[in-house]
Every structure is written in C-alpha cells, then in structure tokens.
Amino acid sequence: MPYNKKIAIINGHLIDPKNNIDEPKNLYIADQQIVGIGNPPDGFNADKTIDANNLIICPGFIDLSVRLQQPNIEYRSTQMEEVKASTASGITTLCCPPDTSNTIDSPAIVDMMKRCSTESGGTKILPIGALTTELDGRHLTEMATLKKAGCIAVSNGIHPMSNTLIQRRAMEYASTHNLTVFIHAEDPHLKNQGCVHEGMISTRLGLPGIPATAEIVAVATDLALAEEVQVKIHFCRISSAKSVEMISHARANGLNVTTDVSINHLHLTEYDIIDFNTNCHTIPPLRTQRDKDQLKQYLKNGDIQAICSNHSPLSEDAKLAPFPETVPGISGLDSYLPLALKLVENNSLDLFTLINRLSYNPAQILQIPTGHLSINAPADICIFDPEMIWQLTPETMNSVGHNTPYMNWELKGKVIWTLVNGQIAYQYKTQ
Questions:
Q1: Closest-CA residue to 92 (of 361, 428, 424, 367)
Q2: Max Cα separation, the chain?
Q3: 253/113 same-domain check
C-alpha cells in the first residue's frame, strides 16, 4: 500500500464507545493520529479520501487470543500469513499466547515476534510471556526481562502449574513488575483425559468429559491467590456461567480481575459435536445451551468485558484422528466479525455495546492507549460493511488454517478497510 500522510474518511457511520459517538461523522487522520472528528482541522488537505457510505467506522478490534501458528511448528511464512489474516479481519492489535510457535519465554522470541509485526505492516502483535520456562509449570521465567523485551502480560497458556505454591510465587513475581496474569482456568485433575463437556452428550457419544467444575474450582483457587497477592488477573476464554458469577462477585468486592469469552462459546454448544465433528474440539470445551445463553447475558451487562477469536490455525491432519486424539482449536479470524454481528442480529447485544467489547474494553484490559478514536489517539481503525453477505469457503478464507465448524456458512458482515497507525493495511477487493 502507498504511504498516505493525510487521510479523510467520509460519509460513514462512526461508532466510538469511549467518546459515546454513534452517528454519521467524518474522520480525519494525519501523521498516524486522529486529528479531526466531524470537521477537518484548519488547513487539512487529504492525500487520500475513503468514501465509507453505508459503512461502519469504528476503532480497530483488539483480539486477546490469536495463535499465529500451530504450537511447535516453525513456519515463519505461516505466522506472517496469520498476521495478514488478522488485519483483514479488522484486528489492529492482537495478543499472542505463550503456547504458540516457540514458547515465548525469552527476549529473543519476543524480538522475533515484534519483527514479524513490523515487517507485516499490519496488525500489531503484543506477545504474552510465559510464566514458566517452556511452560513446564515449575520454573519461573525472568518476567522482568520479558516485560522489558515487550511482553504485555504473562501466562502459562493452557498448560497447568505444577502446584498452587508455584502459582502463588508466579503471581507475586508478576505483581512486583505490574504484569497482568492471563489465566486459563482448568483443574488438570478434574479435567483428567477429557475432551468434551461432561454431560448428556459426552455420555451418549462415549467420549471422556471435562466437568464444568474443572473450571469453577480453578477459578476459585485463582481468585483466592490473586486476592492474597494483590495481582491483576485476566481469565481467558471463560466457558461456564458459574465461573462468571464468582468472578463478578470478586470484582464487586474490589479485586482487579477481568475476563473474556471466545466467540465460539457464544454460538456453539456441546450439541455441535453430536456427529463427532472434530472442528468443534476446543479448549475449553463447548458447554451447555444454558451456559451459552448466560454467557451472552453476562457479556451484555458487562460481567464479561471482551470477546476474543481464540484463533488456532491447524493443518488438515490435526483434525483427522478419532475425536479425543485430535488437536483442539478453531480457525477463528475469518468468521470473527460476522459471528460477532450475529449477536446484534439476534438481539443479544446492540452494535454500540458489541464494538465496545471488541475494541475499547480489551484496550483497557491491556492498559494500552488504543481502542478509541479520540483526537490524538493512534489511528487504528476498522471500516466494515454490516450488510454484505458472503460464504465462508477455503477460497474466501485469509487464514491458512481451515479448521472451522462454520465452513460453507452464509455470513453477514465484511471488513472493507483496516488502518493501522494511520495507514491502509488492508483493503477488500471483490473477486
């Protein structure tokens, strides 16, 4: 894309939750920043004008969980392709968990990921550093060094800590350096060898189940330790309604805790695995209809603050084994916006609240100065068509991972432009 120093975005409907804007307004950009809303600043002459007629202009999405490639596979080209797919999905900033590609437990790995972000010219990558070396759950990493190298937070990914004492020590270390701990809440003993939600469907299919209590018990432990240590924690991809109730109670009592939900858990349930659909093998597992309905309600009222894609691109072979032996994960970038907009279509959320959960709230969780379109804010912007209907096929997907239960679905909503730091990083072109 050519470099454009000044850009005018005109005739669109602007939604900016932080500034309570939800109306037709023009937007003006110069030197990577927002310089005008509604009217251009004096002497502004655009190098490029984007006509956003019938389109939504909003802050770029901030995705709290995007794996850029399958764990332990060192394909740098794949990583670059996934960054491009993120940009095409309207995501201007992503968090990469530590259990993707090479474990993010050293400054060298962090530097490699930052270079990938710079070279792509698109979505900004914020690495989440490992809590323990090689995610072994035993030996703490040099978190201060990881933070200095550019890690936005720390986590042990989906890997369990070996015991609660080490977990407490890790939280203490993180707290000392003002690092948020991202937590996948799951008791490994209650999980055992489970691969789906424990319930009627797992019994009918003869698959080993993971009870909701595996998450609930872990959440209770994490909350107790966080309260004692006074560390900021963020629960990733929460899946059970009871867990959210506990987290909400802790927030009401002053604990610094936030949570997000995967877009998949707002649309799919345990019933979607009824035909042994391995593309519905996820971590955490898809839960009950009641859980799904209550998660949407908690998202609406703010007890859940953000929606992530939980993108995990996998090879075709990863999903071809018997269900328990397949690799869990869904390629979620291409369907991220359309599935989010379905929440508006079915009246689970209004569009203003949805944009908040995709942009400003995640930025607040990460404590970064984006997710809004204030004057002098970084010009990270998504412009999308909420009415465009298209079909998800291997040919229309930008991600190299085609492991999705939404294949061949007719979807509504398409990103047309993505701007990162005031530059056009993606523009939709009709085939």
A1: 424
A2: 70
A3: yes
Among residues 287, 313, 140, 121, which one has the least CA distance to residue 210?
A: 287
Same domain, 415 and 301: no
For residue 16, give the nearest of 371, 394, 276 by alpha carbon.
Answer: 371
| Cα–Cα distance measured from residue 280 to residue 264, given in angstroms and rounded to the nearest whole number | 9
CB of 91 within 8 A of CB of 66?
Answer: yes
Cis amide prior to 127 (ω within 30 degrees)? no
| 40 and 66 share one domain | no
Rounded distance between C-alpha atoms, residue 35 and residue 362, angstroms = 23
Helices (H) and strands (E) in the chain, counts: 12, 20
Query: 279 — phi, psi (to 5°)?
Result: -70, -10
By CB neighbour count within 10 A (0-12 exposed, 13-18 middle, 19+ buried), where does 150 fall?
A: middle
As given in the structure block, the two tokens for residue 95 are: 């968090």
Please indicate, yes or no, whether residues 167 and 281 belong to a single structural domain of this protein.
yes
**Tokens found for residue 211:** 């009870």
Distance CA 306, CA 72 (A): 28
Count of structural domains, the chain: 2
Using CA atoms of 15, 21, 24, 25 in order, give the dihedral in degrees to the nearest 10: -100
Beta bridge partners of 410: 391
pLDDT digit string, tens, across residues 243-297? 999 999 999 999 999 999 999 999 999 999 999 999 999 999 999 999 999 999 9
What's the pLDDT tens digit per position in 290-339? 999 999 999 999 999 999 999 999 989 999 999 999 999 999 999 999 99
Residues 381 and 35 sit within 8 Å (Cβ to Cβ): no
* Average pLDDT, integer, range 112-126: 88
| CATH assignment of the domain containing 11 | 2.30.40.10
88 and 148, same domain (yes or no): yes
17 lies in which domain range? 6-58+377-386+409-427
pTM: 0.96
